Amino acid sequence: MRRLKTLLLVTAATAIATGTAYADGHEKRGRDGELKIIYWQAPSTLNPYLSGGTKEVESASMVLESLARFDNTGKLTAWLADGIPTVENGGVAKDLTSITWKLKDGVKWSDGSALTANDAVFTWKYCTDPAGGCAQASYFDGVKNIEAVNDQTIKITFTGPKPFPYTALVGSESPIIQAAQFADCLGAKAPECTTANFGPIGTGPFVVDEFKPNDVIQLSANDQYRDAGKPAFAKVLFKGGGDAASAARSVLETAEFDYAWNLQIDPKLLSSMEAKGNGKVVTAFGTSVERLHINQSNPDPALGDERATIKHPHPFLTDPRIGQALSMAIDRALLVEVGYGSGGQVSCNVLPAPAAYASTANDSCKTQDIAGANKILDDAGWVKGGDGVRTKDGKRLSVTYQTSTNAVRQDTQALVKQWWSEIGVETELRNIDASVFFGGDPASPDTFQKFFADIEMYTNNFAGVDPEAYMANWRCAEIPSPKSQWQGANMQRFCSAEYDALVDKMSQTAALEDRADLAKQMNDMLMKSYSIIPLIHRGGVSAHANSLGGVKISDWDSELWNIADWHRAK
Amino acid sequence: MLNYTIRRLFLAIPTLLFISLVIFFIVKLSPSDPTANLPLTIPPEVREKIRESLGVNQPLLVQFGLWLKQLMISEPLYWTNQYFGTEFEVGQRIISYQTRSPVMDIVIQRMPQTLWVVGTAYLVGILIALPIGIFSAYRQYSIFDQAGTFVSMIGFSVPPFFSGVLVIVIFSVQLGWLPSIYDTTHIVDSWDSFVIQFKQMIMPVMVLALQTTAQISRFLRASMLDNLNQDYVRTARAKGLSEKIVVLVHVLRNSMIPVITVIALGVPTIFGGAIITEQVFKVNGLGQLLIISIQAGDVPTVQTLTFMFAVLIVLFNLVADVLYGLLDPRIRYD
Amino acid sequence: MTDSSAIPTEVTDDLKRPARAQWRDVWDQFKAHKGALVGMIFFVFILIFVILGPYVWSIDPTYIDIRARNSGPSLEHPFGTDQLGRDSFARMMAGGQVSMAVGITAMLLALLFGTLIGVVAGYFKSLDGPLMRLTDLFLALPLLPLLLVTIMLFRESLSAQLGPEGGIFILMVSAIGITSWMQTARIVRGDVLALKEREFVLAARSIGTPPRRMITRHILPNVLSPIMVSATLGIANAIITESALSFLGLGFPPDFPTWGRLLFDSVDYLQQYPERVIWPGLAISLTVLSVNYIGDGLRDALDPRLRAR
Lengths: 570, 334, 309
Hints:
Chain A is of the alpha+beta class. Chain A contains 15 helices and 21 strands. Chain A has a domain at 286-540: Dipeptide-binding Protein, domain 3 (Roll), CATH 3.10.105.10.
């Protein structure tokens, strides 16, 4: 908590510093010409409510804004609201069942009309319409009502106490859209409003001139933007398509573009491109963790319909000693070096951030210990056979290890397989096309929810800064099973009454320190069970030209969250 | 011949319907999910809602029927309204899962850049291939023939994801002469802007043309070689016809049958776009649209694009068949 | 596929049962074609390299020596190592096995189907319509979703029988094979349509030659050159299709080396480690080139008019 405060002071100080820099003479809007951004995955719409993809959300964040955004340190910052409501300042009700936001004065839509509380109410109605298929509906979970107290005041009422009430209309995923523009686009009619979806009227620093889906967006500075000297750029060209390596090349080598997003390529390549001196690589860490899930249920095909359900515990992976040995055998630092570079850090927690929530109890995993792992298995009675694979009571330590198809993941798999072979564990590798693996099609045997393998690897994270919903993923009730059409987030089928109790407790605790404590306890409990083995804390990697100033990359919100402050460095 | 053409055109309708049904089932059966690419932070209930709103969960035949109705009724009506100012009641048009906007609008938006780049490349490829093919055959095993064979086979065996990156590294990174990213917003309205357009087209066009050239020149060479030794060539020469006429009129005309097939089969692929080359140079044409739609499980777009592709294939195969008859009057279909 | 003489015997078996002397004739003619001979020698060499190589060079292509990663050519690793420290020389051999097998099998499949359908459609008028509509259907099939479907439908059962690698191999080969015969079929049919009306065919028919003999004796030998070109381009096509699928994230998994995949993986390192691109690139190009020359020589050798000269 203290750390967050210090960071806040630092940000405030830099904000003042940049503010004064603008004051001396050249504060004309659009003074710096054109800004060229490349996202190698192109946005397919500018309405983030119709598509939840990162590329759509981030490109729309230049145009649409929300009441508050997270800055690059994960701190909640008032954006369209004139302050963050809390229990102390009376903005949040004492019983935690409602929150009242006040809009900044004089904010105008880019068509010149005024932003009012009605727009916020409309946004809620738009996204919660049952026929609309709104991708961001979870941001309005637990919201009973949103009403306009007056033109400037929005009151959100929740169905029950909500210790962390900053979800609806906060962050780039749930921005406010203009009621007048989308009035006829509710529910099933949403796709008919192509003009509105491709060119939403916003309050942000830029206005859409032309949008070509999955290709390119041209924007220009918003004349009605509330901050007189911003944005510094008159035009933005937002190009999509290609691949990460070529996007990096266009900024770092040929200097055709100013900003490139999501450059997950070999770190060596990226640094050799950076060495050309045209631009800088920047990284930001949020909550993404690449992890192994250790199946606690038996995926044996012989079990038929009861395969991978908790009725049949796994023959050996439920023993935490085996999980521990598997974890100890992995050299995480090397995984980072080979596949992630500056975009990854060794992680021993499934909940690595924000700093206040990160546990330090499991840090021993940071160093590889093959001998130790071998000893644990020896002590547990697993004996190496003639082929180097350990056996016990007729069971062989042989696992299938699956993940999505992706070059970095296959490298990781190959390395892990080799380390495990050194401790007498035989591994069969499988990789599955990402659209199938993450597709959730109940007819496919290869989805990550079905988990018809012993071990699987992928990355997960949570949006925003509050881990409550994320930690609730590992309740017993979240275990995917045929009854729930294989839906649920508890992939490794971890189940503990004690853990469930902590989840319930957290949902009723408001004080941040207590919440942090609970989150750490839950994290440690998961780590001790060795049903989940964190590998790498992954960050976003982007690059910007040296001549581009003001970039503060953030993984808590859109990377373009402060694009109004971007400018040409002199 | 006219009868034959008309009969084939009528036959094309059931053929195309059948083809589109097969494609539909293939696309639908493949385990794709329009919500698979969304971040994992979006919970399964929301995903289910999204799928429902897209109509993914309806019975397959209902979905196919809906698509067919949209293609056969809504779209033509819409375009009639657009061009003739009529005011027919238009039902829902074909809507893409990804963009939630009409597929046809995107297709039309992308047509120009694909035709510019892929079409030009195809033309350039043919124009280079014809003289190479003719001359290589006429002077078989000459140095020109050997060099032509060597270059065209190397060209054919290098995949565009390699040759594309190679030319980018040479001409964009090292020399800085040409842009590595195709600007689809560029408008040609003056000499200078034409020069820019020309510059950004050179690399993708040449990379693509290499493949076409190699293929067509090989077929033409082989076919010319077959014909050069025929009796009628000897007869023509004996009649005292000039060498130029013998080769360019008699032999070439008779050698064109396999070449016409290859060229005709290639035309639909122009409209299909060049998936990899478009990706490498970020041309974002129809090929890129197809591949991202496949990856995103966007069935209506994939279905519409492949259907258009099928129409062109059927059409150009018919054109090839008619051309056979014109090139060699002995071929009759009646 | 493992036999270097597979192509000549395969093709001629379809053609005719020639007298022994005639065969020797063909071989003599073939030998005289310098390019063809060099091509043949090189092709055999590549086959030996990829099939017998791993017995001599026994480093496991999947073995990771992380300390030696990204190293250049040395005695220990003649072609250097990749980003995980796997031996590129061993990976070239392993990749070559897959690529050559994919290329040759897909080509043979394509040739067999293509020639059969092309000849039958061109020769028998009643079958022309249905067969060509079938060809249209296959031409219109989108390869990528087709692959996804086949992988979904058959992977489990094939993996169970052939192991995970064998299963995906069969799938890829058959998918590439069944989507690449159409061009050959169309070309052969076009030529057969023209040939059918030629005097010598009419003459043969007028003396009552049955269709089977007509096709094997008179039609097939005369459509040989487009078939040869199709075959040579077919190998290249199959190898390139396989690498293009890798580029698009389909096809063989990333840890399964093939020449196309090795080339694709090293494209990003074009500036840092150019030698990594050169090996697979050279291997593909030279194989394609050698097959092309073999095809050229074979075509000349099988042409009786040329032989007489």
